[in-house]
Amino acid sequence: MGPLVDQAFRLAYGMLHDRHAAEDAVQEGAIRAWRKLNNLRPGTEMRPWFLAIVANQCRTIARGRWWSVLRVDVPASAAGADPADEYVRGADIRAALLRLSTEHREVLVLHYYLDLPLDEIAAIAGIPIGTVKSRINRGIAAMRPFFEPMEALI
Q1: What phi and psi values does residue 65 have, to the nearest 5 degrees?
Q2: Is the Cβ–Cβ distance between 12 and 113 less than 8 Å?
Q3: 77: left (phi over 0), alpha (psi -120 to 50) or beta
Q4: Residue 74 backbone zone (phi > 0: left; psi -120 to 50: alpha; other: beta)
Q5: Alpha-carbon distance 141 to 80, whole Å?
Q6: Do the domain assignments include residue 151?
Q7: Please, what is the average pLDDT of the chain?
Q8: Which CATH number fits the domain that encloses residue 99?
């Protein structure tokens, strides 16, 4: 399970956008996976099984954080920076992701942050592949209003 911890953390951080909460989710997910290791069917891949446990833990944490507010700390040096600056764009993407529903955020993080194939995303989220595709498309569509069109930099 060791090599999967990095992917699990990226998933958890992408869903929760809080380093400490993501670390807690991965740790709790690893403990639950270890306890339920005998439930893993022979021939079943461990990655989707483990990431599904971590994703479920993230959903539980997100439901418990109803009181949290969106905070994006932009250092003073980045406040006056060029909008094309990678940090600023990253903050914009994270802020837009936080405005999505948990279901849309989960599939976008699994697809774009972890670069997982659609069948693994479906297994992790416990939904059909067609639902994965539609959630990705709807999630992207929901994020579009948060970004202004800009000319490509050549």
Answers
A1: -105, 40
A2: no
A3: alpha
A4: beta
A5: 29
A6: no
A7: 81
A8: 1.10.10.10
Structure tokens at 72: 């994006």
Residue 17, C-beta contacts closer than 8 angstroms, at least 6 positions apart: 94, 97, 98
What are 135's two structure tokens? 């959630």
Between 118-125 and 129-143, two packed helices, what is the crossing angle to 10 degrees? 90
Q: State which amino acid sits at residue 77.
A: S
Q: How many residues does the chain have?
A: 154
Position of tokens 């993501």? 22
Written as six digits, the tokens of 59 are 């959903």
Residue recorded with tokens 């932009």? 74
pTM: 0.57
Q: Which residues contact 140 (CB under 8 A, 6 or more apart)?
A: 108
Residue 101 sits in which domain range? Answer: 4-66+78-146
User: CA-to-CA distance for 24 and 16, rounded, in angstroms?
Assistant: 11
Tens-digit pLDDT profile for residues 6-43: 999 999 998 888 899 999 999 999 999 999 888 888 88
